[in-house]
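Hello forum,

I keep getting stuck at the same step: I have a sequence, I want structure tokens, and every attempt I make locally crashes halfway through. Rather than fight my setup again tonight, could one of you with a working pipeline run this one for me? It's a single chain of 166 residues.
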Amino acid sequence: MSINTNTQQVAASKYLTFVLATEEYAIDILRVQEIKGWSKVTVIPNTPDYICGVINLRGTIVPIIDLRLRFGLDRLDYGQMTVVVVVKVLASNGRERIMGIVVDAVSDVYDVTETEIKPPPDFGSVISIEFIKGLATVSDKMVIVLEIDKLLNSEELAIMELAAKH
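Reply #2:
Ran it on my machine without issues. Output:
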């Protein structure tokens, strides 16, 4: 008698979670380059309000995006808990660029398998879900898993990148 022990292992990916308002969001930790405290940025005129400006990070000009404002949440004064998560983003042309996202606080790192990420519900045209990969339950709480490439590759950000080069 033989027992089939060929169970398929599902690899888990690590996700960095952070807080915006009362919600917890997650991004693939392989995209995170570093986490730094809030520091002054150089403001670029005529950009959307959610683009804080740019910083010089070891010779690289990095656009900084306030995710609260990008998601239509209330503006919050930056404090000691405010952090910038510096991420690598793949543009649609395959080019990689570095960007920073301002979040209220970094939370934790979780292992999440692809099967644990459920598709977001369809809210119709009221709420855009194009930036959401799905929802995952970790440690008894719901986490919104973001598609960082789609979130940070809009036309406005392309304009921002051109403005930063001039």
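Residues 1-7 have pLDDT under 50 and may be disordered. If your local run keeps crashing, start a new thread with the error log.
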